[in-house]
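Exercise (ungraded).
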Amino acid sequence: MIRLVNFGAVAIALFLGAAIDQRSGAAQTPASGGPVNTALIEDLVAANRILAEEGVLDSYGHVSIRHPTNPNRYLISRTLAPGLVSADDIMEFDLDSNPVDPRGRGLALERFIHGEIYKARPDVNAVIHSHSPAAIPFGITQVPMKPVFGAASFLWVGVPVFEVRDVGGPATTMLIRNGSLGKALAATLGEKPVALLRGHGDVVVGPNVQSAVRRAIYTEVNARLQAIAIGIGGPINYISEEEGAARDKMAGGEAEARAWELWKRKAMGK
Amino acid sequence: MIRLVNFGAVAIALFLGAAIDQRSGAAQTPASGGPVNTALIEDLVAANRILAEEGVLDSYGHVSIRHPTNPNRYLISRTLAPGLVSADDIMEFDLDSNPVDPRGRGLALERFIHGEIYKARPDVNAVIHSHSPAAIPFGITQVPMKPVFGAASFLWVGVPVFEVRDVGGPATTMLIRNGSLGKALAATLGEKPVALLRGHGDVVVGPNVQSAVRRAIYTEVNARLQAIAIGIGGPINYISEEEGAARDKMAGGEAEARAWELWKRKAMGK
Amino acid sequence: MIRLVNFGAVAIALFLGAAIDQRSGAAQTPASGGPVNTALIEDLVAANRILAEEGVLDSYGHVSIRHPTNPNRYLISRTLAPGLVSADDIMEFDLDSNPVDPRGRGLALERFIHGEIYKARPDVNAVIHSHSPAAIPFGITQVPMKPVFGAASFLWVGVPVFEVRDVGGPATTMLIRNGSLGKALAATLGEKPVALLRGHGDVVVGPNVQSAVRRAIYTEVNARLQAIAIGIGGPINYISEEEGAARDKMAGGEAEARAWELWKRKAMGK
Amino acid sequence: MIRLVNFGAVAIALFLGAAIDQRSGAAQTPASGGPVNTALIEDLVAANRILAEEGVLDSYGHVSIRHPTNPNRYLISRTLAPGLVSADDIMEFDLDSNPVDPRGRGLALERFIHGEIYKARPDVNAVIHSHSPAAIPFGITQVPMKPVFGAASFLWVGVPVFEVRDVGGPATTMLIRNGSLGKALAATLGEKPVALLRGHGDVVVGPNVQSAVRRAIYTEVNARLQAIAIGIGGPINYISEEEGAARDKMAGGEAEARAWELWKRKAMGK
């Protein structure tokens, strides 16, 4: 049996057996994309916990998934440290990042990163924004981040750096707190899996949440190893474009499940 | 209901239902600033535990808060590793760092750091002194500590380095063990949030204990990331003064609570 | 009493009291090398867990042992993160890396590393393939890995680097997914205990699983220390060939047991 | 009530109520220095566990104390990973490193480090030999280890490097496995608190076990911080000789107890 979670006011009202339309008078509140399989919500919760456990997400940062049946909605936690997120904290938004059912909960300030990437990238079903500590130095120095080992081969397409000053001027708070900045960031990301935000962190995307989590973790690991390699002394023998492209063609399925199983066990204690 | 903790001898005497004035004959013992809300004491205890858990405080270092109703008193643990501090260990001092109610307890040797900063900085209600490991190298080398990512943007005003030799001569123990050294350190700090102590550690201040803790943790993280960036190779694209100033104007409230909640859960196990 | 584990279909059939020959019609399925002492299986499981606990193996990588009574068979986990491996996950293979009793289980993709090394190295009874994080940078830079402290003295014979492009061409996935690549890797390893795989990880071998585990851990530690030494500044006073050779002659027995006991306790929680 | 532990055969015989003199016929077995307060043994056990917990001791290395009532005896664990040592593992030796009561137990191979230092240094009552990971690179490079922060100020007298090739020739195993090498190491140490062993580790001594533990931990921390400072770029403003000498005159008592209490709690789980 598939269990479903309802996010919209109507669905909740039905769930409670109530007939009142709570949306009346709230013209700008978007409708829910419909109920979501609880297993998918559990994966999203696990992704939050895994990335906290593995040191990719600190108290900030967030993970989202696109709504499984309505591509114009996405799911993300209310503002909360990822290490503390539970299923009850997941909220639904439209792609302009308006909440479907706010109920007074705090909204992730930089949720526009997620909405704008989902608009620009139909292939993407999961987005991570983190302060990935080893990645940050590569956003503020002159050495491009490049893949140094196989598990991070997806970086072979290049890792663009988003400079918020180019879009928001010299005196922003650096936060992606509106659709305009989110749209510019999505443009910098282009068709790639990872972009760095100068002096801030990174965004990592994937076709599903397991893939995005794997990429976020191995972006962090790759950054650590690349910095060590630079310290040892070059030239560095990076993963080539041909090797990266060959690996992109491998089905990620089994390998991804193997890592996900371990990470989930460590993060969720089961 | 607000619960209160009494620190002064009179208050304790009343609490015990006794009529004896224990202060008789102890002319130099200052009077207590009055009872303190237990929630505030719990925050001070949590701050000690959090900073130990996050690797900012080792066996030494200390955290204090200004007395909430008497600005001429401050609260700090008896001499004890911060990771072991409980509410019962908190003592009260006047700003010359005389204890209100010593009861034979060991006094933090460098408490003058706290007293003198509270004298000089009416805006400050929490002071942290740590041996923050990543920060120490920036106090003994020639590269100024500067903010490399948003969460440490408060460093944009600059991080002065206190050289104890300039004040105490070439043969001190380097410890801030009297009011004179504490006053000189407070002068070096000036209006800034952080100062480094050469070959020793740092001091971090804030308008409240949550803010000071956040700054102490992100000073440590920033130092780690800046050292890595230097290793990768410059020039480094630091957070600009304009960006730092813009972030200073953001209300810290929600973001600070988000991190505090996670750190407290990790450190206090609940 | 010595307990035995049976891997072959016949042995399992006997164990279940069944008379059906499950091998009929499966001409290419090799016969089992015979039952294996459970203590040896437990050591193989412990090796997986230890290397995960010590940070040498991530979600990938694997450990194998040669079959104790049939040198043409080896034992390795089904595809599974090493930190999750239990005795039930151990499978048996011939040296062409065909499974004795697949039962639909996922096979370690790069198991050819193991089979080909067992063919080439009769002295080897345990093989580890890892993404040892500190070792990877030495496979992509220009400084040879050399022993910097006694516990890693076995590196004195040199650490060759396997370049998959030399064998598989410029566009492989870099994975050792067939016998041909495995054979080339075994040739690069030669008579040595450790070889690096460029942009991938390392292989470590030993006369028994305890020895291979010790070498894998100290290869990782040596890499960390060598990188730090390079950062401090050379020339570096490495372990000499004469010292390395002298240590090779020491009986490893007691010293190895000492470390194994601690590592096992940490990894297995007992 | 003071409880005592007996190490000698006679004492044990008495404890067992037996009258047999087990020493008969074992002319070279030294007599015990007499019973030892169990609290002192507990401190020695705690020292082993603390140094393992803090990452100074790996599976190897050892801690000893001089016998409290007979300066010609010392106490050290049988050969065992320090993280596993209990009171029952402690053995007694004379200063030539002969065991008082072997009972077939494995002897620490490099115990001669301890015996020879106790001979040469009447002021020393505790000796630690470790593979302190951050310290090893300073024994093989060209930058002398010097104190970078107050807690390691005891290094101001200089940290000599013992080169085993100078004494044992080019082809030793590098282990201090006899009195002659131990004596040479003690000579290199001289009157100082710490010496590095090239490509091996360090020795750290103190007037008591708490002091030696504190020095061993802060030698490791100092090495980490000095390596980071070198990476940031010099010249480095080290702790001066005058500052170091001033700190040497401070009573270590209270400060040492403060750290010991925390370390013990972490290591012993109580």
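Further reading is listed at the end of the chapter. For now, observe: The first helix of chain C runs from residue 9 to 16. The domain at 37-268 of chain C is CATH 3.40.225.10 (L-fuculose-1-phosphate Aldolase).
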